[in-house]
């Protein structure tokens, strides 16, 4: 601030306040399960009125469905993974048969008998081993979280906690919006800024709907699940999930319909990435260039290196010459018709399920947006 003249500061504030009388439209983009809807839930917690008791109760069927789907998916892959896993206890066999025969989906009445069988199966070490190999098949992120809380979730008077709601997985198949206001820091002129944040479905089949809301978007928050490096897509099990995210980011970076929008990348699921790397997850197996990567910044451990590698990939994509980019076609409008001038891409490391982390990250996100808007007015 020190070297800025008073006059210039006044002008900044004047322009900024003018601009911020209008609503800022943010769009969450990213592949399936990258964490977009979780960010919407955090905005409701941080900037609206959180979840009422009746809203919490409404989530019970979804949470129980998460349990049902998780245990079914784990059990049905015990024999399909290579080499297969065996049950540790003979008594678990009846429980496994019971759960598999019910299938993975609603409708089901969640009886005591059902929860007892899930409990027996989940305690079996062979089932746990299959769970630990879940990158070899498709399993929702919250499987362990909910299965470990079975004794609470099964109760008739169970009311979900805010954390349960943040972990609950429901695939998005429509476009939704949350409206909220944020206090503007004094350094940017104070007052309130109004935001509309849009959520879309990220799986391949959902992306054709994206174009409907591209117009008028000022900022794109692009989510990448950093922990996806050892997973394949639900939609196509031959494609690496993290690679799909990088390709999709590239498509969006050069997309003619959103070329004026600011781009902010969230390298999300840092908690899961950290755990995977600490447990021996090997990035080189999936991204061979990782072995030659030497970070510019100093890093203390392998997790830090993995984080920085992903940031570096984003910078690499942003620095590419557009002439060399081909239409990847992951979203409509991604074919290059003209050169798009270089854009600033802000990157944040996030844990979407952690409200404190998201509060801190959004303090800087709002500043990124405010700065961009001040700059674009000159
Ligand atoms: N541990 C952990 N789980 C996360 C994080 N972010 C999201 N999740 C979980 O990941 C799952 C998927 O998150 P969603 O927010 O539904 O993902 P999405 O991007 O909206 O997915 P689509 O609607 O299919 O496009 C949910 O169960 C979340 O609780 C994170 O940072 N850490
Ligand atoms: Mg979603």
UniProtKB/TrEMBL annotation:
Pfam families: G-alpha
Binding site residues for GTP: 33-38, 141-142, 166-172, 199-203, 268-271, 352
GO terms classed as biological process: adenylate cyclase-activating dopamine receptor signaling pathway; sensory perception of chemical stimulus
Stored InterPro entries: Gprotein_alpha_S (IPR000367), Gprotein_alpha_su (IPR001019), GproteinA_insert (IPR011025), P-loop_NTPase (IPR027417)
Compartment annotation: Cell membrane
Keyword Transferase among record annotations: no
Alphabetical list of CDD domains matching this protein: G-alpha (cd00066)
GO cellular component, one term: cytoplasm
Binding site for Mg(2+): 37, 172
Keywords, ordered alphabetically: Cell membrane, GTP-binding, Magnesium, Membrane, Metal-binding, Nucleotide-binding, Transducer
MF annotations from Gene Ontology: G protein-coupled receptor binding; G-protein beta/gamma-subunit complex binding; GTP binding; GTPase activity; metal ion binding
Family to which this protein belongs: Belongs to the G-alpha family. G(s) subfamily.
Purpose: Guanine nucleotide-binding proteins (G proteins) are involved as modulators or transducers in various transmembrane signaling systems. Guanine nucleotide-binding proteins (G proteins) function as transducers in numerous signaling pathways controlled by G protein-coupled receptors (GPCRs).
Description of how the protein assembles with itself and partners: G proteins are composed of 3 units; alpha, beta and gamma. The alpha chain contains the guanine nucleotide binding site.
UniProt name for this protein: Guanine nucleotide-binding protein G(s) subunit alpha
